[in-house]
Write the structure tokens for this entry.
Amino acid sequence: MLRSHKMVQPLQKLAGVVLNARGKRRAREFRISILIAFIALTGCASQAPSFVLFGAYFPAWMLCALIGILGAFATRGIFVATGLNSVLPYQLFVCSSAGLFAAILTWLLWFG
């Protein structure tokens, strides 16, 4: 709900705060930064996804990263085996994005 300018002025004077345009902009930026911090920290509310491996807790993101790296190498192997490596430009970006896709897909299917 938007407040009218006439309504905001008395509230600011009542609080002892009179903001100019620059002060309003800083206040808005501060509120936005607090909102971003709250949104970023909402993922920390629960326990981190991990699993027991040889008696120790192993972080799940590390397993997904390993699967992503293996996915990138597998993509490169498929390109070499089919001959696409000679005609496909930007192979590093294509293989990296295939590995990232494999890692995110693993995360979503296993822990999502």
Remarks:
- Residues 10 and 86 are 71 Å apart (CA to CA).
- The chain has a mean pLDDT of 81.
- The helical segments are 5-14, 21-41, 60-82, 91-111.
- The radius of gyration is 25 Å.
